[in-house]
Amino acid sequence: MNILGIETSCDETSASVVRNGTRILSNVVATQFEFHERYAGVVPEIASRRHSEVINYVIEEALEEAGTGFEGIDAVAVSSHPGLIGSLLVGLIAAKTIAASLAIPLIGINHIEAHLYSVHFDNDPVYPLIALIISGGHTLLLRSESIGGYEILGSTLDDAAGEAFDKVAKHLGLGYPGGPAIEETAKKGDENAFFFPIVTLAGDKSKNHPDRYNFSYSGLKNAVINQSERFKTPGARSTACDIAASFQKAATDVLLIKAKRAVKDLGIRRVAVAGGVANNSRVRRLFMNETEFESYFPARGLTQDNAAMVAGLAYHKHGLGERSDLDLQPRSRLENIVKGKRNTHGK
């Protein structure tokens, strides 16, 4: 079964054809870095306009690369939430048009579930598992019992991890996107030159603390931007490389701390890590070297927003009989789905 996936939730325009949920026949991604670089962040109006300009070409290229054409597509899947409304609308209009024209099923996909599914292309994950989704827009700790079924354990109270990377990179003049810029600069620095705060929000013994699994990056970001010298190790250098390395250490160490809490509390010794920040080498090293649990990562090319993860997840949704109506609407916020039911505290 061939499913055409479409992804336009933020600033990547992507189309992909995936066969039977795991075989990627094509995965075309058009980035917008050059359009947002001067602003050091995504400008929603620019993002949606750029999606409109390139989406038809991206879809055509994905079909040509897959060697299928529209006649070889059995269903079309599209990210419908969460994301930027204007960006999501572009993908939804394209997907609805294709579904209606070809009289094939339309399947709306939760973008966060799709990120979690991305680990399936290069792994054979065993459920239940703990999932960590880390990107520019989200930092989420989840418990997942099955493909497409999850419960939110914790999320960020302010900045997402990737957002903090972008803002610190902007402060240091390293460019955009901030994640790769920080990682590259950190390679030349001393991660112990500064001891920036690792914000855990709750002690390891505080099992009933409401923020036990939540994240907060605003304090760390402000410490780096406004108070760096306060956290400097006596005698250490104070270069952009050292600040970047020390920030990266604090920003990534807390991810492992929170994941280990969930592993210990829930007795689940498997952790899937996905999203753009999962491409960070230090994150991968931390989790892959951990002996308390087994780690799953997507291939590096599948950590960014892409349509292959959308189409792959849709194959399983289709198998469960899930379909979307042509009046499917975009939603900017995330919903916490537990065993197929909506849980409002996850919004």
3D architecture notes:
By secondary structure, the chain is of the alpha/beta class. The chain has 2 domains: 2-116 and 303-346, 2-Layer Sandwich (Nucleotidyltransferase, domain 5), CATH 3.30.420.40; 126-297, Nucleotidyltransferase, domain 5 (2-Layer Sandwich), CATH 3.30.420.40. Helix content is 37%, strand content 20%. The protein has 10 helices and 12 strands. It has helices at 33-36, 44-66, 85-102, 111-117, 161-172, 178-186, 218-226, 240-266, 281-288, 307-319; strands at 2-7, 13-19, 23-30, 75-81, 106-110, 129-134, 139-146, 149-155, 270-274, 294-296, 336-338, 341-343. The strands form 3 sheets. It has a 5-stranded mixed beta sheet with strand order 3-2-1-4-5, with helices on both faces. It has a 5-stranded mixed beta sheet with strand order 8-7-6-9-10, sandwiched between helices. Strand 11 and strand 12 (341-343) form a beta hairpin. Helix 5 packs antiparallel against helix 8 and helix 8 packs parallel to helix 9. The longest helix has 27 residues, at 240-266. The chain starts with a strand and ends with a strand. Mean pLDDT is 92; it is low at 337-347.
Question: Which key terms come to mind for this protein?
Answer:
Nucleotidyltransferase, domain 5, 12 strands, 347 residues, 5-stranded mixed β-sheet, alpha/beta, 37% helix
SSE order and pairing:
Layout (H helix, E strand, L loop, with lengths): L1 E6 L5 E7 L3 E8 L2 H4 L7 H23 L8 E7 L3 H18 L3 E5 H7 L11 E6 L4 E8 L2 E7 L5 H12 L5 H9 L31 H9 L13 H27 L3 E5 L6 H8 L5 E3 L10 H13 L16 E3 L2 E3 L4
Parallel strand pairs: 1-4, 4-5, 6-9, 9-10
Antiparallel strand pairs: 1-2, 2-3, 6-7, 7-8, 11-12
Helix pairs in contact: 2-3, 4-10, 5-6, 5-7, 5-8, 6-8, 8-9
